[in-house]
Write a structure and sequence with these properties.
The protein has one domain: Electron Transport, Fmn-binding Protein, Chain A (Pnp Oxidase, Chain A). It is 14% helix and 47% strand. GO terms for molecular function: FMN binding; riboflavin reductase (NADPH) activity.
């Protein structure tokens, strides 16, 4: 039997990027922080992430069926923490705009990926989400590295 604390500690040694998944549902913005984001396929373009069963935000985004993924830049630790809080107005004090796909895009992110939901699979205590990429934009003005989560801390890539 693998203890969840030991598993989390071991997996924490592997650095991940941090994104915000956001959608407009019933005219209201909904979003949450994810560090389980990854590319799955280039042809067709598909990405994935995991959403906890306990998330109260994911059901709104799943129902909307489309969303924008904002890849946070180093220096956006406060944005990451805001979108990780439960029961808070996550968009309060955070710069964002409604992009061409009609969903919230976080200002200052290094890239934005517009997606439509492809499929969800129940896996343990999460849903594995597969999403088809319909558009994307990089922010050459960000001039910053992506935000990285490693061993319980947020930071930047040091090369």
């Amino acid at each position: 039997m693998i203890d969840s604390v030991r598993l989390r500690r071991a997996l924490g040694h592997y650095p991940t990027g941090v994104v915000v998944i956001a959608s407009l549902a019933d005219g209201e913005p909904h979003g949450f922080t994810v560090n389980s984001f990854t590319s799955v396929s280039l042809d067709p373009p598909i990405v994935s992430f995991c959403a906890a069963h306990t998330s109260t935000t994911w059901p709104y985004i799943r129902t909307a069926g489309a969303f924008t993924i904002s890849m946070l830049s180093a220096g956006q630790e406060r944005v990451c923490q805001s979108f990780a809080k439960k029961g808070a107005d996550r968009f309060s004090g955070v710069g964002w705009t409604v992009n061409g796909s009609g969903h919230p895009a976080i200002t200052g992110a290094v890239a934005w990926i517009d997606c439509v939901l492809d499929s969800c699979h129940l896996v343990g205590d999460h849903e594995l989400v597969l999403a088809r990429v319909i558009d994307l934009t990089t922010n050459d003005d960000a001039g910053d590295d992506p935000l990285v989560f490693h061993r319980g801390r947020l930071g930047r890539v040091l090369l």
